[in-house]
Amino acid sequence: MTKQQFLNKFESEKLNIGEYILILEKISDAPLVMGCAFDKGMWKIYKTKERGGHYIIKETESENEAFDFFYELVLSAHNRLNN
């Protein structure tokens, strides 16, 4: 799915990712971020720790592959918090 399709799905399904915040514009080192951003020619799915500092979970050239994977990551966080 595209970034916009992901955002539409995220809002329509009212996914709750707890303390994490979503950042899709850039890679951030802020604490507790889940993100997917286009950086240096690649889509990068990443998370940050409680004290900041990011780590890359997956890199791909495909926006659709990136946001499909990111959706599953976000859905998994939502399910852990709400079950």
UniProtKB/TrEMBL annotation:
Protein name in UniProt: Uncharacterized protein
Organism: Halobacillus naozhouensis
